[in-house]
Amino acid sequence: xxxxxxxxxxxxxxxxxxxxxxxxxxxxxxxxxxxxxxxxxxxxxxxxxxxxxxxxxxxxxxxxxxxxxxxxxxxxxxxxxxxxxxxxxxxxxxxxxxxxxxxxxxxxxxxxxxxxxxxxxxxxxxxxxxxxxxxxxxxxxxxxxxxxxxxxxxxxx
Length: 157
Prior knowledge:
By secondary structure, this protein is an alpha+beta fold. It has 3 helices and 7 strands. The chain has 2 domains: 31 residues, no CATH class; 85 residues, Sandwich (Immunoglobulin-like).
């Protein structure tokens, strides 16, 4: 039995949230979850995040990290190097592509590969215009004490 949520009533009363509703609809449609390569997502500060992926056996040339708008794409692929006959192949060497949906204003700062772990650091930079600002409150008595008057030039006839 499949449960799908209808977001149509929310479209009537919200503006600018269509991207969020699309993400929720897409998340409902995911069938199979690919768990390879394993990864961690860590919040390291108020606006700082880190993604660590276990990519043992891959070198810097085998990995590609790309940010396209609000999507981070990590691709990996190794060329097949048959040095002999494998009796057991337990080290992953197949191609993969992992996508991460990023919130608005999140950007990739660095990507580093060390000891078989790919670490990608991300930072959310909120533009100054979108940060909360304090609005001064004036007194209503001050405004009514001196009403504005429009003065016009006198016409001499």
